[in-house]
Amino acid sequence: MRATFRDLFAYARRYPRAYLTGLTLLVTFAALTTFAPVLVGRVIDTLQAAGDGGAPATFGDVLGTILLILLVMTTAAAAMIGVRRTLLNASWEVQFDVRHDLFRHFTALDAGFYDDHRVGDMMARLTTDLNAVRMVVGVAVFQGANTALLLGFTLARMASLNVPLTLLTLLVVPFITLTFFVLLRIIHRRYQRVQEQFSDVSAMAQENFSGIRVVKGFGIEAREESTFERLNDEFIRRNLALTRVDGPLFPLMEVFFSLTISALLLLGGRQVLGAGGALSIGEFSAFVLLFMGIQWPLIALGWIANVVQRGVTSWQRLKQILDEEPEVRDGPDVDPTIRTIRGDVTFEHVTVRFGDFVALDDVSFHVRAGETIGITGRTGAGKTTLVNLLTRTILPDEGEIRIDGHPIDTIPIAVVRRHLGVVPQEPYLFSDTIAENIAYGLPEEDTDALMPRIREVARLAQVLDDVEGFPEGFDTHLGERGVTLSGGQRQRTALARAFVRDPAILILDDALSAVDTQTEAAILKGLEEVQKDRTTWIVAHRVSAFRSSDRILVLDRGRIVEEGSHADLLAQDGWYADMDRRQQLERDLEAS
């Protein structure tokens, strides 16, 4: 628990002025708030003395005390406003910092992390869990310090009035402590189960929203509704189980205080009415008012403890993410002086394993800067694994990869990725305009200033005519994942996005699979302009994509089984030549 608080409040320490100012104002508030009942008691004693024939009380005396009470309470109210503006504002700043660090860490984690974690779960941590954390560093600090200060000032003033009665009020503390200790342990476990179930509900909703066309296409809305209902019912059941535990906190506090106030009236009344008047009516009134003034802060201890327990649980869930270390990251051997790459790539005896499966087995080849290399083979042969190694998404288990003669792990990851233009088989487009999607990855500039360049790469990617056919042209706003466009249009837009970066290495990972052969031919012709003085990797299944490649690698079960130009591989009459004949037959059948 201490380590948890230490990590969390490291963020709060970034705003010392806000917290110190807030706590100072809380001291002012507590001192003034507890002073008001004492003044009320003095007024009562003054009036009582006058009524019993003592020194006469003037209206001016009473009015002066009343005005002093008003001044005290007005100042206390102003101090409380200042507390809320400092402490609560600081909690929002902390939430911003944690969210920023969390999102930055998300972007640094490897792709494998996202294979093991659902988007809905990560969204739940960024929203519900993060809000619970904010409550700890804001409301819990505010109310906890307020309660502690009020309790301290109140007990001091009560003790100055009557020590025995003060000790009587302290009898309620052990019962409160024991109740908190028992219930909060249960609350922690149940709240954690609630958050886990909320992640399941969020994940299913997110997956259904993203895959709504699949759901509707298969007509399984009723089944999905039933599954969601089951998850939601379990979420409600766990929340009710949590409520059954934290619900009794406030009623129990009320019972403890009711018993205490009854004892105070009994014992304090005897002292007021007893011989010698050990306690005046004004003092007893002030004592009761002071005690009643700390009832809500003490009752709020249950709520504060609940907030803290939930916040700690949520922070632990966030820490699980923040403690995740990316496997691929800049190491101690990185050379910060390397700021650019030309595109010369060498693989030497590279092996990659995923458990018992060997994705690449002792692969060696060299791609010269400016060369165009084709990579093909059966599904699962290891083509995409080669791409993932070059983009530093994964690490090799054996062997070495060099770019421009430098071991790839000595080049900063940001430098490698900044000089790559990757077009995956399943391109992802953002919910933004077509122009913004094409310009994605460029330094932030005015999109209007980039329009000539955007139009040119759109022409090379054979998507310009399609875009200009839309009513809003490049300002057309795409739906989530680019659903406004067809599959071929999405791939061509992704091609334009890769072209616009002017990368040293262009990687097309089966990027032409969703376009027809005519469009493919036009794109490949446009590539001739893009490929000048640029290393190009073309990963594809269609043999037609490799006709302009300098060399072609044929992979099978993670090994290079054929290598050469298009003509060389046809002459070898191996797998590549057989695939060419099959695809030529398919084209002839389509044409007939």
Uncertain runs: none
Shape: elongated
Number of strands: 10
Helix content: 55-70%
Total individual domains: 3
Could you give the distance between the termini?
A: 74 Å
Report on the biggest sheet: 6 strands, mixed
What's the CATH superfamily of the largest domain, by name? Answer: ABC transporter type 1, transmembrane domain
> What's the tally of helices?
21
CATH class of the largest domain: Mainly Alpha
CATH topology name of the largest domain, in short, is: ABC transporter transmembrane region fold
| Rg on CA atoms, Å | 36 Å
- If strands are numbered along the chain, what order do they take across the biggest sheet? 6-7-8-3-9-10
CATH architecture of the largest domain: Up-down Bundle
